[in-house]
Each structure stands twice: as structure tokens, then as C-alpha cells.
Amino acid sequence: MKVATWNVNSLTARWPRVQEWLTLHEPDVVLVQETKQTDEKFPFAALAALGYDAAHHGQGRWNGVAIFSRTELSDVQRGLGDDVEARFIAATCRGLRFHSCYVPNGRALDDPHYDYKLRWLESLRVLLVERDRAQPLIVGGDFNVALSDLDVYDPSAFVGATHVSAPERAAFRALLDTDLVDLGRLDNADEPAFTWWDYRNGSFRRGWGLRIDYLLADAAIASRVSEVRVDRVARKGEKPSDHAPVLAQFDW
DNA sequence: ATGTCCGTAACCTACGGA
Question: Which residues pair with A96 in a beta bridge?
């Protein structure tokens, strides 16, 4: 089974790239963030033509999360707790529980949005603590946290910034402490494996990236993983998203 | 620190958000 997570930064603007990418990689399940679409605009029919069932939690101008699947999705949960923004969707297929997450950015350490980010991560932790351990699960998405300094191109440039602060990293680690494995570091303890590069400053060309997109899985799945990689090709070319997809393959 | 991109509202430009 091939699973991916990808912050597309507008499914409307990215649709040609997304369509091309699905045809090329033929993933079984894709966890999508920042569709920036209402449910009315979401391309259900075009996805069906490509062989994908889909579930969407849309908002409109901002946010929006989705799951694409080659097999039928069931038990869709839209939203996390009382969150009013469209940042979480979960669904089941082939006995696996999938979660697509778009964690709040935080903006700045003294911004109310930063507290919202920490509360949001805590809500996700509670959901994961209370999960049915008998059901294998994958949690993926744009977490807007670089877990360690290896996940930052230049840690000195991020002193006092969001994405790297101790509380954010602790909140992220608390998710892993519910017995989840960071698949991006499963067989890769030393390489940066960035997933996001700012559109400005020629960041991609200069290698100025962050690893903020993750696939997390429980031990049952992690033990079956054969390959995990970042598809940097998707960050190149015409009208790319500022995020690259993370792909994982496992025997299921 | 910011050289870009996205969607929106309102119009051929500005703004919030990332």
C-alpha cells in the first residue's frame, strides 16, 4: 500500500499538478491539506474519473483537508473537537484509520494563534490517546513544527520563531508518545528530508527548507514499511505547491 | 529578513495569510 501526505496550497490552483502526480505515482491513499475550497468546488467527479473516492472538509478561502482513496472511505469525521476551522478529517478504508491534519501555523510566539496551535495539538493528542488500539492508524499532514534542529536548514535563523519552539516540539512529541512512529525518520536518522521551502528568496534552489510534513503510524504499520521518501520533483516545475509530498510504502 | 504565491473583494490593485 502506498500512502502520501501533501499540502497542495489550493487544490484549485494545484489541480493540474495533482492530477499529473496521481497518475504518475498511483498512491492508494492521499492525505491532503490546504484545499482552500468549499465542498461545492471540490473535484469529486474528476477524482472519481481517476479512480479515487474522496472525503473533504472544506472551508473556502483558507484551510480545508481531504482524503483521496482508491477504495471506498467510511466513517468520516470532519473537524477536531469544537474547532471552527477546517483542519482535520479522518476516515477508514481497508481496515485502516487515516487522519489528515493541517495544524495551525502559530504566526508568532506572542500571537493568540500560537496558543490556538498548542491547544489544537493537545486536542489531537487526546483523540489519539482515546483511539481504538485494535485499529491500525496513520496520522499525516502539515504539522507546522520542525521536530528537531535537523529538520531546519539553519536553526540560528529560527531563534525566537514558531515551528521550532520548545512547547511546539513538546506538543508534537506528545503525539508520538501515544505510540506512533515518525515514518520520515524510520530509516533516516541523519538526512534533513525537508518537505517545505518558502516561495520567496529562491529558498528551494538554496536548500532553505523545513521538515514540517509528516506521516505517523502505529507499530503494526511501521513494522511493514519498506520505503519512505519526500518527492522533491513535485516542488519543481510550473506552479508547484510550496510543500513536497511525503510518500510511504508498506505491505498490507 | 523576506526577492512569492493564493484567494478574495473589487475592479486592472491591495490585502491577509502563509
Answer: A93
Query: Is the pTM of the predicted complex or chain greater than 0.85?
Result: yes
Q: Which of A52, A102, A114, A214 is catalytic?
A: A102
Q: Classify domain A2-250 at the CATH topology level.
A: Deoxyribonuclease I; Chain A (3.60.10)
Q: Which residue is nearest to nucleotide B7 (CA to C1')?
A: A61
Report the distance from CA of residue A62 to the C1' of nucleotide B6 in Å, as an integer: 9
Residues near strand B (C-beta below 7 A) are: A 9-10, 12-14, 36, 60-62, 104-105, 107, 113, 157, 198-202, 239
Please name the amino acid found at residue A73: L
Distance, in Å, from the CA atom of A63 to the CA atom of A43, rounded to the nearest integer, reads 16
Q: What's the CA gap between A196 and A189, in Å, rounded? A: 19
CA–CA distances in Å: residue A167 to residues A105, A130, A170, A230: 14, 22, 5, 26
Please confirm, yes or no, whether A102 is among the known catalytic residues.
yes
pLDDT digits (tens, 9 = 90+) for A151-198: 999 999 999 999 999 999 999 999 999 999 999 999 888 999 999 999
A99-117 CB burial, b ≥16 within 10 A, e <16: bbbbbbbbeeeeeeebebb
